[in-house]
Amino acid sequence: MRVADHFRRGLVLWDKERYSGVGCLYQSQEQKDGGLITGRGLFEALQTAKVIERAANACVLDRLLAHRGEIPESWERYGAVFFPMTIYIRPQFGQFIRGLFREQCGWQDGYRNVKDDFGEKNVVLLDLGLAPN
User: Fold this and answer.
1) Whole-angstrom Cα distance, residue 57 to residue 84?
2) Up-side HSE of residue 49: CA atoms within 13 Å toward CB?
3) Across-strand partners of 10?
4) Cα dist. 40→9, 15, 45, 63, 112 in Å?
5) CA angle, 90 as apex, 86 and 92 as ends, to 5°?
6) 79, 101 contact by CB (below 8 A)
7) What is the pLDDT of residue 30?
8) C-alpha torsion sign, points 68, 59, 3, 25
9) Hey, how many other C-beta atoms are within 10 angstroms of the C-beta on 114?
10) What pLDDT is stored for residue 38 in this prediction?
């Protein structure tokens, strides 16, 4: 698998407490209503909601995988947290986005094809911007 697109976001100042609230996690209206949306549809929903520029890339995911203690406990109610601004491609299989998947043994790195469905237990991480002084 190789990187197909990577959208730079600049410096993210990570603060576990700031990212513990629901304001940093995005779901489409379909997901909130208990329905499903494809990964492509989720990108469109992020654009329509005017939050696509705040969606996180895989750099944040890699940092969290290296420092799992920094993952907010409040995220445990979700099955997966996605970082869609880095898109991977696997020839003959399509495009994928990475995410943190909640497993019995803790948070694990994983992939989901953009053609697959994302449900009510799936969210996208949004950058909260610079921490207040």
Assistant:
1) 6
2) 19
3) none
4) 20, 29, 9, 25, 11
5) 140
6) yes
7) 95
8) positive
9) 19
10) 95
Place of tokens 């949306």: 37
Q: For residue 5, what pLDDT is reported?
A: 84
Give 120's DSSP letter: T
pLDDT at position 132 is 44
Hey, which residues does 41 pair with through a beta bridge?
none
Residues 93/1, Cβ–Cβ less than 8 Å? no
User: Per residue, what are the HEC states of 7-75?
Assistant: CCCCCCCCCCCHHHCHHHEECCHHHHCCCCEEHHHHHHHHHHCCCHHHECCHHHHHHHHHCHHHCCHHH
Identity (one letter) of the amino acid at 38?
T
How far, in Å, CA of 58 to CA of 55, rounded? Answer: 10
Tokens standing for residue 39: 């990964």
Cα–Cα distance, 119 to 48 (Å, whole number) = 18
Tokens of 61: 């995911």
Q: β-strands 122-125, 117-118: how paired?
A: unpaired
pTM of the model: 0.91
**Alpha-carbon gap, residue 31 to 35, rounded angstroms:** 5
Phi, psi for residue 9 in degrees, rounded to 5: -120, -5
